[in-house]
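Ticket #4471: structure output looks truncated?

Reporter: J.K.
Steps to reproduce: submitted the chain below (58 residues) through the standard prediction queue, then opened the result file.
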Amino acid sequence: MNVTVNDSCIGCGACESICDAVFHVEDVAKVKSEGISGNEDCVQEAAGACPVSAIEVA
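Returned output as attached by the reporter:
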């Protein structure tokens, strides 16, 4: 699974609150790629919850 955060991120923190093993928010969200394995379900949930659709999952 490849997870990226595009430039539309507003740094709301929804992804981090849903899946803090993978996402960390300072000004904008960053992906902690080492945390993806085993957390695919919460990555998908975070992507669905993002209000600006900034999380891209491939």
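Triage note (M.O.): checked the attachment and the full token line is present. The chain has a mean pLDDT of 98.
Status: closed, working as intended.
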